[in-house]
Amino acid sequence: MGGQGNGKEVKLLRTWFSPYVRRVVWVLKLKGLDYEWVEQGFRDPKNRSQLLLKYNPVMKTVPVLVHHGWPVLESLIILEYIDETWKNNPILPSDPYDRATARFWANLIDQKNKERMLVASSLDDNSMNQITKSLNKLLSLTDKKQMEEEMKQASNTIEILDRELKAKGNKFFGVETINRDC
């Protein structure tokens, strides 16, 4: 990865399975930033890494972006920090109203999907087996109504955002272009 950051300058405390981490990784790639990936295996609340406890002693969660030794917490806040620090390939619109609107939609999607994301992130470190079991359980739902409701809930949130994008006439939320090399 090329870019303005380097592994010593930018660290990301993360777990591979977190959807919150994934969006930070996506934006780091979009911006072309090199970073040091510091995996955190912290399923057991009593077994948090010293690095995580140092940089996020209150929440003790990932993602944590460390830039020049200073921690930035919570994925949406991290995304804004990255966008404000590295100006190339903006992820938020420059217009204040459009930027506020984008923040609203990001927050709404977070709130609507928080329970699903937490369930997906609650597997232990031997997760491949657990993920397989969880997916099989989901796929083997026999109650058709329950299956339909789960699928409807997941697609409703995406449809809301899709309608907003179409109303704005943009391919991407609030911006016209995006780096296609990531």
Features:
9% strand; four-stranded mixed sheet; 2 domains; 182 residues; 6 helices; alpha+beta; Glutaredoxin
Tell me the layout of helices and strands.
Blueprint: E1 10-14, H1 19-31, E2 36-39, H2 50-55, E3 64-67, E4 70-73, H3 75-85, H4 96-120, H5 127-139, H6 144-168
Parallel strand pairs: 1-2
Antiparallel strand pairs: 1-3, 3-4
User: Order of helices and strands, N to C?
Assistant: EHEHEEHHHH
Q: Which fold name is given in CATH as the topology of the largest domain?
A: Glutaredoxin
The total strand number stands at 4
Please give the radius of gyration in angstroms.
18 Å
Strand content: 5-15%
CATH architecture label name of the largest domain:
3-Layer(aba) Sandwich
Oligomer: single chain
**What average pLDDT do the residues reach?**
74
Sheet of most strands: 4 strands, mixed
Q: How many alpha or pi helices?
A: 6
The strands making up the biggest β-sheet line up spatially as 2-1-3-4
Distance between the amino and carboxyl termini: 9 Å
Amount of helix: 40-55%
Name given to the CATH homologous superfamily of the largest domain? Glutaredoxin
Indicate the low-confidence ranges by residue numbers: 1-7
